[in-house]
């Protein structure tokens, strides 16, 4: 009887999946994928002066987009650790991670001015044991886009 109650509750109150999406400033959706609770993804790009990869990594924490950590291979222009904002630790290769940032992103979205292909802003995530990459620069170089964590209207 308890199993039936759980099943009835599930059907009456469907579980809604979360989705990570990218839209142009005027609202046109460029891309989306399922990003369930507990899933992680990074925005990666090549530093325009030093030409190394920088990463800002996020977590879906119960429907809240949170900046979890950041990887910076060097203390180059525009990079650095702010005291009281996470913990800086060595990456063992001359760079560092800023761990334990755990900051909610206001409104579960932020705007990004997408760089040219030399910068190659991209979203990177793991799904079903495979690494996936979506190049924002390939689709929207020079444009302002919104990166958003939203509820889907589809049952999951």
Question: Which descriptors apply to this entry?
Answer:
globular; 8-stranded antiparallel β-sheet; disordered N terminus; 156 residues; 2 helices; 4-stranded antiparallel β-sheet; mainly beta
Describe the structure.
The protein is mainly beta and 156 residues long. It is built from 2 helices and 12 strands. Strands 3, 4, 5, 6, 7, 8, 10 and 11 form an 8-stranded antiparallel beta sheet that branches. The protein has a 4-stranded antiparallel beta sheet with strand order 2-1-12-9, with no helix packed on it. A hairpin with a 5-residue loop joins strand 6 and strand 7 (96-99). The longest helix has 11 residues, at 2-12. It starts with a helix and ends with a strand. Residues 1-15 have low confidence and may be disordered.
